[in-house]
Amino acid sequence: MQWTLVIPLKPLALAKSRLGATTGDGLRPGLALAFAQDTVAAALACPAVRDVAVVTDDTLAGRELTALGARIVPDLPGKGLNAALRHGTAAVRAERPDIAVAALNADLPALRPQELARALDGATPFARAFVPDAAGIGTTLLTAAAGEDPRPAFGPGSRARHAASGAVELSLDGVDSVRQDVDTGEDLMAALSLGVGARTAAAAARLLISD
User: Fold this and answer.
1) Degrees (nearest 5) of the Cα angle 145, 134, 30?
2) Positive or negative CA dihedral for 63, 67, 70, 71?
3) Separation CA 20–CA 198 (nearest Å)
4) What is the pLDDT, as a whole number, of residue 210?
5) Residue in 1, 3, 25 with CA at minimum distance from that of residue 15
6) Cα separation of 135 and 31, whole Å?
7) Which of 16, 107, 122, 211 has its CA 20 to 30 A from that of 189?
8) pLDDT digits 0-9 by tens, 36-60
């Protein structure tokens, strides 16, 4: 089964605000871009992924992610993460109504293509399914089979909201890279310990992070 991934990305100047305490505002936008680049590159290398649509209005991010092979969907709603996901899903299904879609976070710099494939394969039997984040509170991946509304409810506490909405929680081993999103300095250290993509590694090398 092949999936179309929809990845929302805030304008880089606003993205990853909680990382500011670790990175400073000077390096934070570059790290946010690196996270998105490594996430998109890994997703496009996944055998279960047909294509990737990134919902963003950021000009630099749009240019860099297009170069990697992503489709850019302008964030016309401009009303946050879930509105962007609904808009992106509608945009890709306007062309191919029968596709299975999956919403994926843009801040998974350690993402491994085979681990993403394992998660997507695990979701295949279900109308809607999700992978909780490493903290066990949020969500990093939400899938919807062909003809199903993803009904995204991302944000703090989204694990409970997605479960309450009827999406099946995927309890899978060996998908740590799918679960490890990055919101804080501690998250970044955890991602680095898993092994991040080349762009994040280069951006993170500019930081001095102590244990």
Assistant:
1) 90
2) positive
3) 21
4) 40
5) 25
6) 21
7) 122
8) 999 999 999 999 999 999 999 999 9
Which residue type occupies 35? F
Tokens of 3: 């999936």
CA angle 139, 6, 166 (to 5 degrees): 45
* C-alpha to C-alpha distance for 28 and 45, rounded to whole angstroms: 26
pLDDT confidence of residue 166: 98
Report pLDDT for 208. Answer: 57
What single string gives the DSSP state of each residue in 91-131? HHHHH-TT-EEEEE-S--TT--HHHHHHHHHHHTTSSEEEE
Intervals of the chain under pLDDT 70: 208-211
Closest CA to 107 of 173, 171, 23, 210: 23
Delimit the domains of the chain by residue range: 3-204
Q: Tokens 């092949």 — which residue?
A: 2
Q: Per CATH, is 3-204 categorized as 3.90.550.10?
A: yes
